[in-house]
Amino acid sequence: MSRIPSTRLRIGALAALLALPAAPVHASYTISCNSHGYRYQYCSANTNGYVRLQYQTSQAPCIRGRSWGSDNGGVWVNNGCSAQFEVGGNSGGSNAGAAVAAGIGLAILGALAANQDNDNNDYNSVYGPPPYPIGGGPVPGWAIGTFNGWLWGQSQTIQINPDGGVNVWYRNGGSARGWFSGNTLTIGNNAMNVQPSGGGIVVNGAYFGR
């Protein structure tokens, strides 16, 4: 019995996936999130991957990626931004996402079919996520990384991620989480100014090196 090429198997599996019914559409709802005293605030919500600023209620500007943002667990605001946000929908309540997915799937089917003659050279590869471009996100390149320094009377390590998330580890064994937006690092109720300096950063006048 001849071996069925693995490319053809993948074509059949992808076709079966495209035939599956679309996931149900979730209704959106509105939440309010306020940056009192220009402090960082996180408002929990089931965003379902969709958030839209509906109405700004603050005089301070609300700029996505700088003074507000979101993840699957909710919405964050900072630097005085206060607003009402529509969350939990599916970007307009249409089937545009399903149509895009179907188009991508058909394109993949065509590429697999065109290359099935090379099936004997097929091999398995594991691809990780693409590297985040330095300076390509809401956090400037100079602020991305892990820094060590002395602040609040103790040694600590600050890790600033490309998406603005911050982790802090203290020498005494404690830790904290926060957010970086613009030039402001917010940990709990403490908002600190951050500036580049040499190969490191200066946090509220204290130098942290890589």
Largest sheet: 8 strands, antiparallel, barrel
> How much helical structure, as a percent, in the residues?
10-25%
The assigned structural class equals alpha+beta
Instruction: Sketch the topology as an H/E string, one letter per element.
Output: HEEEEEEHEEEEEEEE
The global form is globular
Calculate the terminal CA-CA distance, rounded to whole Å: 61 Å
Q: What is the number of E strands? A: 14
CATH topology of one domain: Lipocalin
Strands in their spatial order, largest beta sheet = 7-8-9-10-11-12-13-14
The CATH top-level class label of one domain: Mainly Beta
Task: Look at the structure and give the mean pLDDT.
Answer: 76
Beta fraction of the residues?
35-45%
Please identify, by name, the CATH architecture of one domain. Beta Barrel
The radius of gyration over CA amounts to 23 Å
What does this structure look like?
With 210 residues, the chain is α+β, with helices and mostly antiparallel strands. Among the domains are: 29-87, no CATH class; 141-209, Lipocalin (Beta Barrel). Helix content is 15%, strand content 37%. It has helices spanning 6-18, 96-114, and strands at 29-34, 41-44, 51-56, 68-71, 74-77, 82-87, 145-151, 154-160, 165-170, 175-181, 184-187, 190-197, 200-203, 206-209. An 8-stranded antiparallel barrel has the order 7-8-9-10-11-12-13-14. Strands 1-6-3 form a 3-stranded antiparallel β-sheet, with no helix packed on it. A hairpin with a 2-residue loop joins strand 7 (145-151) and strand 8. Helix 1 (6-18) packs antiparallel against helix 2 (96-114). The longest helix is centred in the middle third of the chain and has 19 residues, at 96-114. It is globular. It starts with 5 loop residues before the first helix and ends with a strand.
